[in-house]
């Protein structure tokens, strides 16, 4: 199964609420978790499903 991560632009800069590392953490984590442990079609933040 392919994994796709989409990120929109224009959300960074001096007013960003997270560092680059914090922002990338969940995407990196999702790329390493076995597919069987991920609910597809969901949005994740801080390694948790948010919707």
What gross morphology would you assign? elongated
**Parts with pLDDT < 50 across at least 5 consecutive residues:** none
Distance between the termini: 21 Å
Count the beta strands.
2
The helix-strand sequence is HEE
The largest sheet, given as strand count, sense and whether it forms a barrel, is: 2 strands, antiparallel
Description:
The protein contains one helix and two strands. The chain has one helix at 20-32; strands spanning 44-45, 48-49. Strands 1-2 form a two-stranded antiparallel ribbon. Strand 1 (44-45) and strand 2 form a beta hairpin. The two termini are 21 Å apart.
Key words describing this protein structure:
two-stranded antiparallel sheet; 8% strand; 51 residues; alpha+beta; 2 strands
List the helices and strands and how they pair.
Blueprint: H1 20-32, E1 44-45, E2 48-49
Antiparallel strand pairs: 1-2
Describe the structure concisely.
The protein has 51 residues and is α+β, with helices and mostly antiparallel strands. Helices cover 25% and strands 8% of the residues. The model has no long low-confidence stretch (mean pLDDT 84).
